[in-house]
Amino acid sequence: METSLYLLLGSVVGVLAGLLGVGGGLIIVPMLAAIFIHQGMPDDIIMHMALGTSLASILFTSISSVYSHHQHQAVNWSRAAKLTPAILLGAWFGGLFAGILSSDILKPVFALFELSVAAYMLWGIKASSHNESPSLFNFNISGGVIGFISSIVGIGGGSMTVPWLMWHGSSIHKAIATSAAVGFPIAIGGAISYLYTGWSHTQLPQYSAGFIYLPALVSISLSSVLFAPLGASLAHKLEVKKLKRVFALLLIGLAIYLFSS
Question: Which of 95-104, 211-220, 232-241 has the lowest mean pLDDT?
């Protein structure tokens, strides 16, 4: 049953990641936490396992999504390259920091972040262009912050990267596409740090590599890679405003679940 849930989760996440530029980790983390509770994993590491596995799966989702966006010539590779070095460092240190926190702390932190993303979507806040030529210092500071926070909450960073890119002159479609490309270095830095911090933990379940649960990683990655191109293709055809509001309500429900679990 768990494998079926992982495959279903991956397919939903793949479509949303390509369609909205956000959503992968925001759904993966709470759903994995619920499944891990059902499987009887130790409470002390449930959030760490969910966060680490989420970031590792985003590695594969982002490759598929970015390829599809690239086919539409929507990725701003210059901006992605300028953000990448600081994002890698930020994601690495974010994972190390999360490794020293307890699940009791990580759970409400993630839930609060999820509620903030939901509010951003529900109220239709739009990032208008203010500075179309950000400095290299701006790229480095922003990349570091995006990578650090994304790694702590186990996401690909789209909820922060998309508004930042739009603030600096990118169209919504180019922002979503470039955000997908930036999600790859976030996932690399974050996944490696969760692998490192959890490697010698005494409570790891079987088939784990640090704080990454391999059965969930394989199933989610397989189905998300297959469905991410569909979401990326739809992003260039659909008006996603109403979809974002429905997605925001889902995030609120997941956040409430984490607070109450």
Answer: 232-241
Which residue carries 């759903």 as its tokens?
31
Q: Which residues contact 176 (CB under 8 A, 6 or more apart)?
A: 20, 21, 69, 74, 158, 162, 235
Report d(CA 66, CA 85) in Å as an integer. 18
The CA distance from 261 to 160, in Å, is 27
DSSP letter for each residue of 204-261: PPTTEETTEEHHHHHHHHHHHHHHHHHHHHHHTTS--HHHHHHHHHHHHHHHHHHHH-
Task: Please give the torsion angle defined by the CA atoms of residues 243, 36, 33 and 48, in that order, rounded to the nearest 10 degrees.
Answer: -130
What pTM was computed for the model? Answer: 0.88
Bin 10: left if φ > 0, else alpha if -120 < ψ < 50, else beta: alpha
**DSSP 8-state code for residue 173:** H
The encoded tokens of residue 34 equal 């619920």
Helix (H, G, I), strand (E, B) or coil at 163: helix
* For the chain, domain boundaries: 2-260
Which of the four pLDDT bands, split at 50, 70 and 90, describes residue 21?
Answer: low
In the predicted model, what is the mean pLDDT of residues 6-22?
A: 77
CA distance 195 to 231: 29
Q: Are 252 and 38 in contact (CB under 8 A)?
A: no
Q: Which residues pair with 208 in a beta bridge?
A: 213
